[in-house]
Amino acid sequence: MNTLFISYAHANIDFAVRIKKQLERIGFKIWQDKENLRGGLDWKLQIFDALMDVDIVLLILSEASVSSRFVRMEWKTALKRNKKILPVLLETCIIPKELINIQYIDFSNLSNYSDSFSSLVRDLSDNVRPENLASRFQVKQKSGDSSIQIGQAQNVTIKKTKS
Length: 163
Known about the structure:
Largest sheet: 5 strands, parallel
Number of domains: 2
Strand order of the largest sheet: 2-1-3-4-5
Order of helices and strands: EHEHHEHHEEHHEEE
CATH topology of the largest domain: Rossmann fold
Number of helices: 7
Shape: globular
Radius of gyration: 18 Å
Number of strands: 8
Strand content: 15-25%
């Protein structure tokens, strides 16, 4: 099962590929048309199938994407399927009314890219567990203890109290 679907206008492909590569490096599984559409098959059906399989739609917002009928078809399908949409604001644009109340992550100032990417990973990690995190972290719980210790192999221990 794929976990993220990147919806973007082809005018923003460089940004979409950059985000995809960085998210894959830290363990997220991504569906993106550029690499996942297969020749000889109905591309719309492939997109609908992918949208059914993902957990979150990462919607890159730009003037080009909000005017794209294909991007609109993707996010409207995601809403109908009750998929979580995480908007990423690449540039100032008019956000569709159906998405106006969904908090976006602001990438419009690329000099703050690192901070924006950290926010993106935080928000995605709250909803999707990257595949390789399970192997990189050890989880321990003492019998009768109300806390869970999550530690990495390098003597780092983070204590998270159960709620």
